[in-house]
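To illustrate this point, what follows is a protein record of this kind.

___
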Amino acid sequence: FIARLPLILYGYILGQEEGNVHYVQKHNAGVYEPDPRGIAELLEEWLQPGNPILEQMAENAASLACPESALTIARRVYDLTSE
């Protein structure tokens, strides 16, 4: 999301990562496509010049970005372990 790019998710770990697929799709910031041919077709469609789908998904992805999240998590872990 930080790179302002939509995601193509092609697999996930049941239970643990299932919510990620729903989150991405709910916010129209990418798609789930497990078939390599389907991925190729998506890319061909998305990469057409001026494609509004790609532009909208890229905007949606950017709006979900949390560039400071890794630092925030590291600080919280440090605070928990340094007490």
Q: What stands out?
A: The helical segments are 18-26, 36-46, 52-64, 69-81. The chain has a mean pLDDT of 93.
